[in-house]
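From the shared-data thread, chain only:
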Amino acid sequence: MKEVKVHDRHFVQYLGASQIQNRVEEIAAQINEEYEGKDILFIGVLNGAFMFASDLLQNINIPCEITFVKMASYQSTQTTGNVEQLLGLRESIEGRHVVIIEDIVDTGLTMSRALADLSKQNPASLAVATLLFKKECLKENVPLKYIGFEIPDRFVVGYGLDYDAQGRNLRDIYQLKDD
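Structure, as tokens:
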């Protein structure tokens, strides 16, 4: 099993690049079918979702736009419980079908805040596509329309997810190794 070291922690491979790509393609196919003929705007949540957003959009074959917002609630390997919007949305979403692209939903606090903020702008519809979902950590009930993988409550890095700003560049997803 592949292992990597990021900062002072060791991680073991959890999801391989080809497994991730296959699931991203499946989600894209579903979106292509469900949003055919609609005015769709994807909103990627930076920094973590940039790789998922890129790969997803490369498989979308219907007219669409993408923009990004930046929100954060993590420090080191723990959620802080506080969500801070760092970079806001500039495009109008009124009357548009919006799909938020997120790297991981665990407590649901970040996504709950994003959905509440975006709902005030009267989109035609609002959906969430998350690559990873830690169901057992959920504190806020958030509607997730597209889920790549449901994972256990283990800290993960790679494919856009980081540990103190490192590890985002890994093609695979790794989970924290048991010591």
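DSSP finds three helices and ten strands in the chain.
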